[in-house]
Amino acid sequence: MTTQPRPVVIGVDGSDANAGALRYGVEEARRTGAIVKLIHVVPDYVPISPMMPLTPSELTETGTAVLTHAEAQVRELAPDLVVEGWLHHGTRPVQLANAAEDAQVVVVGRDNRPLLERLLRGDTAAGVAARASVPMVLVPADWTPAPPRGVVLVGVKSPSHSTALLGDAMALAAERRAKLVVLHAWKLPSGYDDIIESRVAADDWRRQSFDEMAALLAEWRVTFPEVEVEVRVVHDHPSFALVEGSLEADVVVLVRRAHGVPAATHLGGTARAVLRSAHCPVRVVPPNAVGPVPGLVLEQAGAIRK
Predict the structure, then answer these.
(1) Which of 20, 153, 194, 306 is the most buried (most CB within 10 A)?
(2) Do the strands 299-300 and 303-304 form a parallel or antiparallel pair, or are they unpaired?
(3) In this predicted model, what pLDDT tens digit does every residue of 137-182 receive, in sequence order?
(4) pTM of the predicted protein model
(5) What's the topology of domain 8-139?
(6) Which value, to the nearest 10 degrees, does the dihedral of the CA atoms of residues 299, 303, 305, 306 take?
(7) CATH classification (class only), 151-304
(8) Would the CATH topology of 8-139 be identical to that of 151-304?
(9) What are the residue boundaries of the structural domains of the chain, listed by start?
């Protein structure tokens, strides 16, 4: 019995910044055999005044036009895919996260507005990443399905939530037949960092970090023996190291931390910086993601996978 793949959800807003997300979402749907669900969110409030005579129905008409145009773009890119368009009303991050509850992934475009404007009016991608119950992928506007580099880059800070993070990254690398690069980086503010460097030999620190990463990866190597794994330990700010590493990667994988008030709406500073500046798509995994089981050897076509 064949199980229908869960849909690929793409948030569309009619802007040029959304073009890369459409292309990426189409490629994901092609790769996994899924249908595409396009979601456009219409604001649920309208500032009605003599200076701005807009009505809710006019906003809905505009939203429908945006959705229709996006559907046409997807059908032009991939005539063989099944495409559905859905119009939602409300706040973008909340509605996109809710719409993706039954999806395999939700794809959004990078918000290229100035930082101050994003702080004042909200950043859709960061809001979705902080709330979604499935992985969210943020895609630069100029992304195209060029020949893959064959690298999935995953940033690991600590053992906390590493099961969800490494499970997702390993499965993704296996699906793409790519190498998995596991990056661990840290750097304290200058004064404190100098003290640490003076007391801890760099080689000892790297060796200990390599041992910790090896322990986290041990059971995943059993589950995915075909995936080539490279561990990198660098003394640098994690956001800088990940952005630099993104130059050679097809996708960067991060995990959302389960902290903040409330926990479900918090996204760490490193993740925000990487979302804003990475040179490739960035995939943010929720900490409670249910994926492969570490150490499990799967049975395929009557034979044990070795």
Answers:
(1) 153
(2) antiparallel
(3) 999 999 999 899 999 999 998 877 788 899 999 999 999 999 999 9
(4) 0.86
(5) Rossmann fold (3.40.50)
(6) 150
(7) alpha beta
(8) yes
(9) 8-139, 151-304
